[in-house]
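ESCALATION

Customer reports they have been waiting on this structure for their group meeting. Please prioritize. Original submission:
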Amino acid sequence: MEIALEWSAVAVGIVGALFGLASGSSKDERKPDIRAVWIVAFVSALVANLLFIITKPSSPPFAAGERLGLGVLLGGILGAIAGLVCAKAGKMHPRTTFSAIGVASLSLLGTGLILFFFSGYPQPALIGFVIGAITSSVFFKFGVPNIRGIEYYAFFSAGLCASTILAILRYDAGVDRIFWRAPLVIGTIAVAACFGSIGKASRVFVQATTSSLILVIVAAILAWNIFNSPKVLACAILGILVFGLTALLQNAQLKSSAASAGAAFCILAYSAAAFHFLGGFGIGLGLIAAWAILIPALAVCFGEEKSVEQTAASLKLAAFFAIGALAYRLFFEYYGAELRGPDFREHYTFIAFLVGAMLPFGLRSFAPVCINRGLKAKLIASGGSGVFAAAIPLAILAVWGFKAAFGFLIGTTAAQLFSMFITSSAIGDKAKGYIEYALYVLGAQWALFSFAGLIGPVAQNARTTRLAILVSVTIAGSIWAWIASRLDTSEG
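Update from on-call: job pushed to the front of the queue and completed.
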């Protein structure tokens, strides 16, 4: 049964990815420069290979069998393909929907392959896959002007892999192993449901409703016949209802601060209720079920439908918040023992929380945009800013310990809710800016979770050593700030 579920996901992923690649159109003048797209795709794949080589050691924190590196390699290569799908996406329906399905299918394909080949211990490969997905998404988002929707590949991959890891941690391998495949199954149903609900572009809400109904019906059958757990169905329904309500509240006709506040409280309620049912695993299941709504939202992004663009933006921020909640649970599950007991550095937890809450806004002001520079400068800027964002939580962990790092993680998750309020009153490029830099925040969250085991012991060193680390990071940050200012202001 498990092999059948995995191969079903792989088959749907391959078909969806092929549809996404084949449905692209080259007639729209607003499309990104295809030469730049291919260069970024090559760089993305090259960086994935370099990261694979770096993670070849089998000693801790790397896993035996090079699984972390193989996951990074797979995530980066599929990310390059996702970039091509997004760059070639047509502006008219049904091409937009097929392209959106193609992006989600690539996340589904990668996760299915990992679960098949590393079924006994897939966690390192899943973590690596997310790292590769985020890295490639950052290069495309900030390296190629006018590309749309690539951030969806990052949070589709992060949500699916995080949910799978939480399922593995929650359920015993000998008794309830079938639950390890539950996120993959829900994702497969969501992609297939979007295939079966393609309607007119002007009726995107009808399309999302249809795909959601298909998902609920099929999930209900599987919840009783395969998983024998109504809670799986309850979490899926909860995710669809909350993300659907968020879409309605943030609709252009209802857009207001009150609607944004209502959407934010709905997302908070969802995280609490889903956690009550199945813990962090339940939050992940709801997020994956919401693909039935998020995939049509991505189609809207490709089609540039101004009337519902704000709705799509709010849904993205809601998804980023849910992934932040999953990262929080993963960090707690892996490093909970380090968070117990008194700590004389408690005040630094508060400081770290504030740093995390300010991170997306600080990056928006700090990271270079390089509008007037060439592709090389854009790639350097995006890569440098990504490394800088990932280094911040690791530096906090090395200097102030696990509790401070935990505070940073909570702060970054809260920042996504703050962004929902801001984008409700912002328009045009200002609103988009906060969403784009959420990718860097996602990278910082996963860098912290992935490498905390390696960096954490450094916090036990003498105060002078930690002070030297803090000074070094500050100097490096100042140097990057100077480089960023040069990249941002100089003409190409």
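Sent to customer with the following note: The chain has 18 helices and no strands.
Escalation resolved.
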